[in-house]
Design brief:
By secondary structure, the chain is mainly alpha-helical. It is 62% helix and 0% strand. Among the domains are: 22-106, no CATH class; 248-310, no CATH class.
């Protein structure tokens, strides 16, 4: 029992399994970008198709194609302010034009700050916020803080992180997770509810804490298909199959789960996957690309005889 895949921030398989002779992704991207640009030209409150708006949190890179004009539309502003990864995409593409407005919305996302700081270092860009702004976020989202401290050999940040986790282990999930990993003699039960409040950290510590009777059930993570996908992957989940119906409510994460479980090379599983995608209903913004993905997957992973390519 050793398989615990890394955390996937955004579902990727839906977009990366296109065949060489398939251009649906490029056409779909172009359609979405064109729809946004038309709405911006029409005006601040011009409607944008729900499938296009629903696509943005999964594909922040498309907002980078729009650039700063995205601020001109109310619905796009809401997305930028609600999804730190969308703000990050625009920041890294148009920092000077967007930093004053968007950087404060990275508060709470150590992942975005980690990548922004790395990007600034690699490009030689000076960031506008104080060092304390980024440091506070990295400390409170300590996984990313430890990654940054290790990457930059920042001893003082490492000391601050360790001390913060000790002091705040009963108040913050990130602190509790790191503290329990460093103190194997500490009882896990008093921290269980705190750990479950943040599935990201619950997932990170599962391989180590599962040996100490820490388990995560579908009802523990709420209606979160992303984490249903992750816990459905992990061999350290005691109820892996029970996460699949929850992941199935989101076609993108369902496809990600299927790819990780090796379903794409099994004709019977591809058929089952198609039924699950169809069953998710037409209301989800990614059902159409998921169905197109399925067409490509069947062509790529099965021979004409129906025998899987292995």
């Amino acid at each position: 029992m050793t398989h615990h895949p890394p955390v996937v921030t955004l579902p990727e398989s839906l977009w990366h399994y296109c065949g060489r002779d398939s251009d649906w992704k490029e056409k779909y991207d172009a359609w979405a970008v064109a729809a946004i640009r038309r709405a911006i030209v029409i005006g601040n409150d011009a409607p944008i198709q729900k499938d296009v708006l629903g696509l943005m949190p999964y594909r922040p890179d498309l907002l980078a194609e729009i650039g700063p004009p995205a601020f001109a539309h109310a619905a796009l502003r809401d997305i930028l302010f609600s999804y730190p990864l969308c703000a990050l995409a625009l920041l890294m593409g148009f920092y000077d034009e967007t930093a004053e407005i968007l950087e404060p919305y990275l508060d709470g996302s150590g992942e975005c700050v980690f990548h922004l700081l790395k990007w600034a270092e690699e490009t030689g860009r000076s960031l506008r916020q104080t060092e304390g702004f980024y440091r506070k976020i990295l400390v409170r989202d300590s996984y990313w803080g430890f990654l940054h401290a290790r990457r930059t050999v920042n001893a003082s940040l490492l000391v601050e992180l360790t001390s913060w986790c000790e002091d705040e282990r009963r108040n913050f999930t990130a602190a509790a997770a790191y503290f329990l990993l460093r103190h194997p003699a500490e009882a896990v039960a008093p921290y269980r509810e705190l750990l479950l409040a943040n599935p990201f950290y619950a997932y990170l510590v599962l391989p180590r804490l599962s040996l100490r009777s820490f388990a995560v059930a579908p009802e523990d993570i709420g209606m979160l298909p992303r984490w249903a996908c992750h816990f459905g992957w992990s061999a350290f989940s005691t109820r892996r199959d029970e996460f699949i119906p929850l992941a199935a409510s989101d076609p993108a994460w369902l496809v990600e789960l299927a790819a990780g479980l090796g379903w794409l090379a099994q004709p019977t599983k591809l058929t089952e996957l198609g039924q699950m995608i169809s069953g998710s209903g037409s209301g989800h913004p990614l059902q159409q690309p998921a169905m197109q993905f399925l067409v490509d997957a069947k062509r790529l992973y099965t021979r004409p005889s129906g025998v899987a390519i292995v």
